[in-house]
Amino acid sequence: xxxxxxxxxxxxxxxxxxxxxxxxxxxxxxxxxxxxxxxxxxxxxxxxxxxxxxxxxxxxxxxxxxxxxxxxxxxxxxxxxxxxxxxxxxxxxxxxxxxxxxxxxxxxxxxxxxxxxxxxxxxxxxxxxxxxxxxxxxxxxxxxxxxxxxxxxxxxxxxxxxxxxxxxxxxxxxxxxxxxxxxxxxxxxxxxxxxxxxxxxxxxxxxxxxxxxxxxxxxxxxxxxxxxxxxxxxxxxxxxxxxxxxxxxxxxxxxxxxxxxxxxxxxxxxxxxxxxxxxxxxxxxxxxxxxxxxxxxxxxxxxxxxxxxxxxxxxxxxxxxxxxxxxxxxxxxxxxxxxxxxxxxxxxxxxxxxxxxxxxxxxxxxxxxxxxxxxxxxxxxxxxxxxxxxxxxxxxxxxxxxxxxxxxxxxxxxxxxxxxxxxxxxx
Length: 427
Fold this sequence. Notes:
Blueprint: E1 36-40, E2 47-52, E3 55-58, H1 59-64, H2 81-84, H3 88-102, H4 115-118, E4 119-121, E5 126-128, E6 136-139, H5 143-153, E7 170-172, E8 178-180, E9 183-186, E10 189-192, E11 201-204, E12 208-209, E13 212-218, E14 237-245, E15 247-248, H6 249-255, E16 269-271, E17 276-277, E18 285-286, E19 306-307, E20 310-316, E21 323-329, H7 337-345, E22 356-358, H8 373-376, E23 384-385, E24 391-392, E25 400-409, E26 412-424
Parallel strand pairs: 6-22, 8-16, 9-26
Antiparallel strand pairs: 1-2, 1-5, 2-3, 3-4, 6-7, 10-11, 12-15, 13-14, 13-22, 14-16, 14-17, 18-19, 20-21, 20-25, 23-24, 25-26
């Protein structure tokens, strides 16, 4: 395979393609997806792979057997950063060529003598962090979420702060505590102030929450001092993951003035393991909400920059049954990814491959679409009934919290898999 020219940068996998790999109808990993991740097995060291149905195709094996022609070192290590660093003209062609190899009428890969070593059952694999994250930024870009929080802690007339409709509000988070799906997270401790007229107290949070978010991974950096425009932004975004920004609401309420979140947010965030490329999501673009007032020129953009990605959140009590408590959609974002990246770099801030920028909590206009327990339980006043007869206002010890997401159109499904978190008692 030749190293590809730039014309392959927007290569699309046709919707009518099917695969010789058996793909369940409800699988997130269709031939139109081809997401990238890092996995290992009992006999395979950590390496890059792609998900197809309930299988994982080993990219190191593909290179070694000359099905794809890229440097071996980009796919036989612990993170995707070097592979991503090859650039979209190459990585997009790798994705397209893999889909071609998996296409129903192509037998070259299917009939290879060692195919069982190259295409493995996902149950035999452990999924790892897909990228080495150098920096992480969390935005606050869902208008419904920002409005709900404003109503709870201020009043409906002043729910959105004066700057909110003029710029994508964000803060710098902690990259070291971003974890892969399946992580167990200890309940964090910190200061809270449960009684306004009394001094603060120290102890485990009593209001542990999830935040339903989508994150995007930087695939191309910029030099310090340079900016990335909204028109250039998509060339700098490799792909998307689900992002659970766990939050300790009582700690947050006491600490966040005047500089924003700190201990309430930096103890853990959990991501889905497969990176779904921006190109795989291209067919699911939709218009976002009309932004009023008109944004400043550096935040203006052309085309459809929102994505119709269905999202859901569930809780499984320890020893109990899973229950879905939220249905939302990435299309509800007021500020889109291109605007977020343009704003983040307009002052010359430099991005690096593997950096994650997260959307902020994604809430919709209806109560069942609220993307946090703070909203679903409305600041602890509306208990959420569970199947086992218990209720939830916030996450409890022993709960397993799961985020899922997928896009669907004309019978084609492109999904993310899961971001799964188990809550453990405080140490």
